[in-house]
Amino acid sequence: QVQLTESGGGVVQAGGSLKLSCAASGHGFGGYFMAWFRQAPGKEREFVAAINWNAKNIQYADSVKGRFTISRYNAENTVWLQMNSLKPEDTAVYFCAADTTSTVSDYNHLAGEYEYWGPGTRVTVSS
Question: What is the pLDDT of residue 19?
Answer without folding.
Answer: 98
